[in-house]
């Protein structure tokens, strides 16, 4: 996940985060869908979005995601 210094235009809205998921070739078949599903549910909550925005570092974002997504 990358947090942009300034939001960019994304359709009719603005995006402040870029999310990319990488898996090794031996990952379980639907693992990526489970991770994105968990992330989508979390993003719906303002408290989670605020935690992402206010995270002090890349390590803090990674820790938050690992904890919230149970990775």
Automatic annotation (TrEMBL):
<dbReference type="InterPro" id="IPR002178">
    <property type="entry name" value="PTS_EIIA_type-2_dom"/>
</dbReference>
<feature type="domain" description="PTS EIIA type-2">
    <location>
        <begin position="1"/>
        <end position="68"/>
    </location>
</feature>
<dbReference type="GO" id="GO:0008965">
    <property type="term" value="F:phosphoenolpyruvate-protein phosphotransferase activity"/>
</dbReference>
<protein>
    <submittedName>
        <fullName>Multiphosphoryl transfer protein 2 [includes phosphoenolpyruvate-protein phosphotransferasephosphocarrier protein Hpr fructose-like specific PTS system EIIA component]</fullName>
        <ecNumber>2.7.3.9</ecNumber>
    </submittedName>
</protein>
<dbReference type="Pfam" id="PF00359">
    <property type="entry name" value="PTS_EIIA_2"/>
</dbReference>
<keyword id="KW-0808">Transferase</keyword>
<keyword id="KW-0670">Pyruvate</keyword>
<dbReference type="InterPro" id="IPR016152">
    <property type="entry name" value="PTrfase/Anion_transptr"/>
</dbReference>
């Amino acid at each position: 996940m990358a947090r942009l210094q300034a939001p960019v235009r994304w359709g009719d809205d603005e995006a402040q985060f870029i999310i990319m998921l990488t898996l090794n070739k031996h990952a379980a078949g639907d693992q990526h869908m489970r991770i994105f599903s968990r992330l989508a549910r979390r993003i719906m909550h303002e408290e989670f979005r605020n935690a992402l925005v206010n995270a002090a570092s890349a390590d803090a974002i990674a820790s938050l995601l690992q904890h919230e997504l149970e990775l």
